[in-house]
Amino acid sequence: SQGQFPLTQNVTVIEGETATLTCRVDQNDNTSLQWSNPAQQTLYFDDKKALRDNRIELLRASWHELTIRVTDVSLSDEGQYTCSLFTMPVKTSKAFLTVLGVPETPQISGFISPIMEGDWMELTCKTSGSKPAADIRWFKNDKEVKDVKYLKEEDANRKTFTVSSTMNYRADRSDDGAVISCRVDHESLNSTPQIAMQVLEIHCKYYVSESDEL
């Protein structure tokens, strides 16, 4: 059994999508292969299904490969999966399945419209469900607002996060019509950030009538 050993790779998948776990053996003299989950339950022994879970399917089973897939992956599927080659002694290879939680569309609270010039408003942008915690940034038109407060809280499931970012804004007349946006970046979004936006409407405090100017 020299040179007989299983090879696996770590897998990262977005919650709700499909994970494919492949175990390969270059040289194999008809020795069985097995995939087991993080709880050490056997999923497949060669081409025989061992765990009753409709989401787990066999893709390929041969002496050189045992590939299975898990559809509709949930956060609780995350962990270390083991491929075992039943040589004497048994040889194993481990693959870690990482499940990403997708952040929900962000919401902006505290927005006042119209607002009088010189007045303040405290804006908070919030998104839940991200794993790992999402990144939030604020922009006024295309310029990033730097002086903000970031808060990260664990959700009730102990796996995902609710993140929020708060900025204080003082109304300036020159910002009338400007767009305030909150941008959420996360590795599950494939480089397409989620954005919430509001348009500033700023009213002047003092109106000068024509007769006063004369």
TrEMBL record:
It is found in: Membrane. Keywords: Disulfide bond, Immunoglobulin domain, Membrane, Repeat, Signal, Transmembrane, Transmembrane helix. Residues 6-93, 106-198 form the Ig-like domain. The keyword Cell membrane does not apply. SMART domains: IG, IGc2. Coiled coil: none annotated. It is a single-pass membrane protein. Its main location: membrane. GO terms for biological process: homophilic cell adhesion via plasma membrane adhesion molecules. InterPro entries: CD80_C2-set, Ig-like_dom, Ig-like_dom_sf, Ig-like_fold, Ig_sub, Ig_sub2, Ig_V-set. GO terms for cellular component: neuronal cell body membrane. It holds the Pfam family C2-set_2. This is Cell adhesion molecule 2. It comes from Ophiophagus hannah. The lineage of its organism: Eukaryota, Metazoa, Chordata, Craniata, Vertebrata.
